[in-house]
Amino acid sequence: MKRVIHILLTLCFFGAVAMAQSTAGRLLGSVSGPDGLIPGVTVTLTDNQTGTVRTATTDDNGGYQFENVSFGTYTVKFTTNGFKTFTAQNVKIETNREFSLNPTLELGDVTAEVTIQAGAEVVNSTNAELSETIDKKRIIELPINGRNPLSLLNLQAGVNRTSSSISGQRSTSVNYTRDGVNVQDQYIRTGGFVEDLPSVDDTAEFTVSTQNSNASLGNGGSTQVQFTTPRGGDSFSGALYWYNRNSALSANEFARKASGLDKVFLNRNQFGGSLGGPMPLPGFGEGTPMFFKNKGNFFINYERDLINQSSSVTNVVLLQPYRDGTFSYRRADNGAIQTINVLTGAGLNLAPAGNAANFASTGGAIGVDPTIQARLLGLTPAVGNDSNVTTLSNGTALSQRLLGASRNNTVRDAFTMRLDFGINENHNFYFVHKWRGETIDRPDADVGFDPIPFVDQTATTRSFTLNYNAFLGSNSTNNVTLGLRKSNPTFNESDSFPTDFLITTLPFGLTSPEPSFQSQGRETTQYTIADNASISFGNHTFRFGGEANLLDIVSFDEFTTTPQWRISNGNSNTPSLSGALFPGGIAGSDLTNARNLRYLLGGFVERGDVQANFLGTDLGRVVGARNTDSYKYGIYGLHVQDQWRIRPNLTLNLGLRWDYFSPIVGEPIYLEPDLRGANTVDEVKAALLNPAGQFVIVGTTVGKPGQYTNGDLNNFAPVLGFAYTPGADGNFLNRLFAGKTTFRGGFRMSTVDDSNILSQNNAETANVGLDFTGSLVDINARLNNLPAIPIPPIRTLPLSFAQANADAPTPTNTIFANDPNIQNQQTMEWNFGMQREIGFDTVIEARYVGGYSNQLTRGIDLNQIDINAGGFLTGFLQGRENCRVAAAARGQSLQIGVCSQADIAGTANLPGQSAITTGGNNLTAFNSVGFIRDYYATGEVGEFAQTLILNGLDDVPFRANPNGGNIDLLTNSARYSYNAMQLEIRRRFTDGLSFQANYTFQKILTSVADDSQARFNTFLDNGNPELEYARANYDRTHTININSQYDLPFGQGRKFLNQGGIVDKIFGGWTLNNIMNIGSGAPISIKFTRGTLNRGGRSGDGTAFTNLTHQQVNDLIGIREVNGIRYFIDPSVIASDGTALGGNFYQTVSAN
Q: Is the pTM of the predicted complex or chain greater than 0.85?
């Protein structure tokens, strides 16, 4: 009931102020004669599809306009005494675009008529919007893979087929609507997923505004994509269709062909039908006819999409020789191949007492664990068919890739209906309903060795739209839209999902034959209310209004509700095989593989986790219970815009938009850092880094239960633009420009929904809450005798950071906060360009397009490891230098496996060696451990520090707050800039030909290189954030987009074979259609991702340094095949053991 009252109150509010988004277009212009502008001309606008007529009269300045004109083609007639009647046929009004028609009347009798064919507008002479409408002909006839008209977005300047970015911005800046109602995924806005999934036949047209949209468009986007549903006409028309696409003539994939496998299978069938036409409406009341035959129209469409296909799958298998514990390696003493068994101990050197004791401590002689045999080895092939994954020093493979195929079918049904009702000439409304149901295989989510994937996705989407139009006199209109949309995408786990526990983190890259994905999904309900209005006074047209989108989202998941046990890879509580056990000595990498093979086959586990979700105060935490969250979120907007036609050839557009994104309100079952009293970002950071900080229930900081942040109310955004056509008014510039050149420029600020729901929810749910994950860490257990996983008790609130850290599996508990005063991202956009009509219904355009924002949402980690703490870096570098000197004395380079404990300590007292005297005791206390010594070789001082922290061994203050690990903050800490040149030539469809071609030269610089859903992009170094400012991963420097349509000149009404009958049936109606996208690729970076300056988890975007020139690096990169081996880097710089030739890197390339 509260929801209904909320909607009614909101509707009443907007009914008083008017407007929001509308799909209607506008027709405007000025009427002139030989002596100048003509007032009092009668302008008649007739809808060619329905016969509806509207009239207007030119004002004292000869101006006229029609607001709120439905998309379609119209006949426009101009009449006044003393002048010939002027008729423009097939004037095309497009979705949310303006058509400027400026006739010059000839002296003569009004009964005489001058007729032109207008078509779509070629030159935009009324505003600075960068927009284009994809009409029905292009949607129907251009070759679209999958019949999704969204792919035609790639025809526009500033859009690239291989990137989801438009005009330099992240994908969340794009807003998608159908008939004025938002239809995109509001929970996950990245990637441009449209839940509505438009099809060719249920789309009349769509308009793309890539920049500088008018003030009526917002709803969280700067780029606007507006779809409209077809409407019926005054005569019946329809279509039946069947499309098939299959793999019969397709090429094979590179990897499958190289492995001797057949190409994947595809057979796609899309079939359906459409019907539209007049719809008689019943008459009511005395004196009315039983039916009105010209008051209603309908359109319906049904489509089924059946995709039967397979997708390539790459699994990894353990090869047969090693499945019983057999293991071979190259001896260090003489290079001979030695074979042993890591389970039974056969072949190991067990004679020395110390060796025998070591082997006994690891569990002694054992066999293959029954669970591993039954649930892993018994269900997976023992041979692969592609490249090796793990290769031993003797050149033999331990694990290998197995290429296969998985079913990837889709069944989708969709029904669309539109009903139009004409009450009278001043009032009409329409109703649109769309339903879609689908079942999709998802091998990308979880797949094993069976041809049927473990996961499928089901979804049902329903939408209802009611739109009312009123024409209030000759100078004002009003449009009201109500919308309801419900969707429920669900990812379903396999029926064979284990009910007892999962086995995770298999070594050697092995693929589990068991499903691991657990169900998740959400149900979204969206209510839309919008009111549009316009009113004209003289040369001014005011458009103003408001809108509200109210969202209820309920999400669920079953992650970790089944216990998960991680196969061991060694820890302090699990004794490992000593290198002394292996006769002749063994390389470090082989020793690690031998240990991991024993852990795997023996069923050793090192960690167990299970989720206990909170089900209320009565039940508390329940192991295995589903996690359910709900969120409430609203998007509101108000705007006003004045279109001022200063002169017939000069128009100014001045607007202001205000957007409000209500704070997200979730379930009060999570905790958040207590930030009460922290009013600035610096104060928030200080509170998070305070070791004495505490957690409180979500909403405590802002004083409202469940609310994530405070409201951001100051989102005012100006919209400015001009369009000037020199010479159009007959002045001296006419000789130069002849009224065929238009200069346009504009500036707009847009308020963007930068993945608000998902990013802020990711922050809140990262903290410990009333839900809890129970864990056992660093244990020495077996799959055949698993211990119980304890669930800690619910702590009394507030919960201190220190207590939460103590309860965590490792002393690195996550502390994640939303900046309570986070701002919605505001983006500035600007453009300036020139259009020139060159004849033949063709226009060329050149423009500069720019954009900038320093308010991008970004999650950062405040608790960066300080590698200088206590002289840790100084001591580490000395140990590294000691090892380098010792290795050089032996003729070796500094790489993994080279450093001994004595080398690091510098006990040989070689020149350049010295004792380590700084960095704490634990810097040197564990140098007997092989992987610790390898940190010195690889230079991973940051990861070394992280290892000490994870094990509670940090005896120097690496962290500003030792009572937390990741201490994260989501705030406005990123920026981007965009600069582009765009060139375009386009011809509207006349005489059987249309084409559009554009070229974009652009550069995107940003401090957030990717477009991740959660907006979590930490700095490599908090002290030097400018390191991150670089080209975006989604930047494409050069893009050329071309499309064309040509009706072949054969058949009735054409130049050749102009006759009907069988000749026209065979030769008429043929068209040539073309789409071509040419573009440069994504920026290529050579990254150095080791944990040097920071830990490895924060070093993913580190850039490698080199003394080579750009050209030298470029010359080394490219696919090469030498002796049957494929390389991406020139193999001449790779040593025989896989290391970089002459470098100091560990093995990175396998021998095969």
A: yes
